[in-house]
Amino acid sequence: MYTGSLFLLHSCTSTKQVVKEEPVSTAPKAQQEFRAAWIATVANINWPSKPGLSTETQKQEAITLLNFLQSHNFNAAILQVRPQADALYKSDIEPWSYFLTGTQGKAPDPYYDPLEFWVKEAHDRGIELHVWLNPYRAHHKDGKTISDQSIVKKHPELVMFLKEGYWWMDPAQQAVQDITNDVVVDLVKRYDIDGIHMDDYFYPYPSYNGTADFPDSVSWSAYQRSGGKLSRADWRRNAVDKLVERLYKNIRAEKPWVKFGLSPFGIWRPGYPESVEGFDQYNQLYADARLWLNKGWIDYFSPQLYWPVNRYAQSFPVLLGWWAGENKMNRHLWPGISVGGDGGDKNIDEVINEIMIDRGMQPQSKGVIHWSISSVTKNARLADTLLKGVYKKQALVPASPWMDNKAPALPVVTTSSEGNVCKISWTHPDEKDVFHWVVYSLYGNTWSYKILNRNDRRAALDKTKQEGTITRNLTKIIVSAVDRTGNESEKKELEIK
């Protein structure tokens, strides 16, 4: 933590003067909660709305989504950039996505890098941008023509055709693990992203292959010939485990502030806890998600708890409580929620209830991810209810102390007065260490705050506020700095006279 610089405070009068800083006895605190939405590009679910749109239309659609998130007090977007071993960004490893341009391997024209655009526009709105990748899907059934640049044609020995029309990489092959690792490291190195995110598609769902077993007999036989002793199921799980651990370590080594998030199927195994019934990801996706959480190979864990509170066999709070009990390393546990797309009272109540249950069960690190952004953008009643209720106040993303627990330095703050307006400006000795600013203000006995983005250096506050017949005076302000991992600087009060 930086301790050497002075926090300069000037009174809001027509003549500037330095006011002696005073420690805060009961410092105000901005709300902390992860408020995110998935933005799916596969099959053009969320963005872009269809393949082959003009560059300008793609940009406008992205800005519309980001403006919505900002105006509704969300603080993170999880953008799918690798739906089928392709790229919605400039990559030397994989081809441009069909879902972007309508032709796999074709760049946008006029050229732009969509991910560079999304990162800048998100950060300019104070929103974290996490990139979402599918680790093993080689070609989606809606992905149209397979180009010569696709892994399906370049490395047919690494992929399998599934009966429902998908192509899937073989997770047990070292070359497959290397490709996914290289894609992730490349993204972390070249883009100013805030997180890498994986979803629940590890080994494919059985329905993708007509319920037949995954066709990996060649690599399984090679493993046996090499003297391997694991069962086939354990061998598959071990392959996925190795990739998850490797990605976590390599992301941390490259950029320690980039979070690694995982969003597995919401049930680990039927019977865990005892009332739970349903799909067994451990034995069918070969995803030992509990192990990854137990080991702390992630920074945030978002099981897809897409069931209502009162469904006995898959109850939202029951499953959330079980996963919380498995969170041995105290990572963020931010569940995914999805309760339907209509604007009826039942669905709206369910969303609000699940957010409130999460807050009550996990006060140390609150937050959910909405599946998907369209469930909110296309549901005006839900969006309005969120904004007037649980998302009424802005929130910072909760801090991640295992990543970084050093708070940034104090800002240097200057104020001046113009009529009824107190003008506030600030500088910082290490601006690269700051992702947000928080301006706190005290009117009467009530503190409020405004979270600003990295580019802001000034704010203006009325010196008096009229609330009915009561006039409240601005008596104190604080400006704090928040870094990329959520650490907030110390707070020093400025008396306003």
List unreliable stretches of 5+ residues.
1-11, 13-25
What distance separates the N and C termini? 31 Å
Radius of gyration: 25 Å
Q: Architecture of the largest domain, according to CATH?
A: Alpha-Beta Barrel
Shape: globular
- Strand element count: 21
Mean pLDDT across residues:
94
* Helix content bin: 25-40%
CATH class of the largest domain: Alpha Beta
| Percent in strands | 15-25%
Largest sheet: 9 strands, parallel
Which strands sit side by side, in order, in the main sheet?
11-10-9-8-4-3-2-13-12
Structural class: alpha/beta
CATH topology of the largest domain: TIM Barrel
CATH level-4 homologous superfamily of the largest domain: Glycosidases
Number of domains: 2
SS summary, helix count: 13
Topology of this structure?
Elements: E1 22-23, E2 34-39, H1 55-71, E3 76-82, H2 98-101, H3 114-124, E4 128-133, E5 137-139, H4 151-154, E6 159-161, E7 167-169, H5 174-190, E8 195-198, H6 217-225, H7 232-254, E9 259-262, H8 281-284, H9 289-295, E10 300-301, H10 316-325, E11 332-333, E12 336-337, H11 345-361, E13 367-370, H12 374-377, H13 380-388, E14 412-418, E15 421-427, E16 436-443, E17 446-453, E18 458-462, E19 464-467, E20 470-482, E21 492-495
Parallel strand pairs: 2-3, 2-13, 3-4, 4-8, 8-9, 9-10, 10-11, 12-13
Antiparallel strand pairs: 1-21, 5-7, 6-7, 14-15, 15-18, 16-17, 16-20, 19-20, 20-21
Helix pairs in contact: 1-3, 5-7, 10-11, 11-13
